[in-house]
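call fold(seq) -> tokens
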Amino acid sequence: EFRPLIGNRVYGCDDCQMCCPWNRFAKITDEQHFKPRHDLESSDILDLFNWSAEEFDKKTLGSPIRRIGYARWLRNMAVGLGNAPYHADTVSALEDKLAYDDPMVREHITWALTQQKSKCVNANAAAPITNK
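ret:
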């Protein structure tokens, strides 16, 4: 019931940072350890979902994101992809990981596939019929 409410928020740190009353006193730092790494701040969710476990380990080294682990990373990305607009590449990526060896991940990928496919059906139903 909460999956649709998550939208594309796949990791909560940014929300916490935005609403933390202490952050109004924060100043931008030049400290490299606090800067976004591996273009995570501008990455496409589908690209992030397609990371292998090895890529996840490498690209989250030294980051608090690593604490959730690869399986929960996939779960969170699957929810975001389920909430995303329909795209055939999204369906294909979800189907590719559907056999992942974790029931929680499979459950969320299955949900995401259902969401994506329903958007495709709804989009096709609304499309005008042409004779071309």
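The mean pLDDT is 86.
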